[in-house]
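seq as requested:
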Amino acid sequence: MSRSIPKILPNEDDLARLPASERIRYRLIGADCRYHANDNISAHVRPGELEELKAEVTAKMQEVLSSLVIDTESDHNTNETARRVAKMFIDEVFRGRYVPMPAVTEFPNFSRLNELMIVGPVKVRSACSHHLCPILGRVWIGILPNEHSNLIGLSKYARICEWVMSRPQIQEEAVTMLADELQDRVKPDGLAIVMEADHFCMHWRGVKDDESMMTNSVMRGAFLKDSTLRREFLSLLSKKNGH
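struct tokens:
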């Protein structure tokens, strides 16, 4: 059970005496900033606090293992599990919450390119915010630039995808967040994103269906208005998939 946060926020000296998670939470509330599972909170994390968070998560994960009646002292396989899980959550699978957007160099569209560009498939890994089960999938990105668009390198699309996807979330919101980031950075005439993914909350639990996948898309600008452009993008994706 999380502690309730008083409306009167403490000063920095008082904050320094609190666990890192509470200090960060105070800053977020003081800035009236949302901190849902798929939000990036890096602007409110100070140097050294991620290491403190890992220590907190390790201690609490150890309590979870104890509550599951797992003897982590004599079982060599689980002796370091709490620490490994904490490191995995903060440094890897939920990293997109705690670090800023990766540096992305942008180039002016000197050649005035205005033809459809498709990037993908980009492999992505995320986690379902309902059960923290893995989501493994692929993303295709369609860009219709104009003379005022910013061009970015192919690898940068993959970095932005990874940054957005490495958070607990649902697929529909993840694709929309990715579209927002790319729209703001590239400023194209049209933007299209399709994501296809396996959800392990379907494989491991519930219906235990190994065949189902989820596919969703976001279409903006010219892709939304021009059905011919939209069909061209989707048909090229079908060819890339071998369908």
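The longest strand covers residues 117-128.
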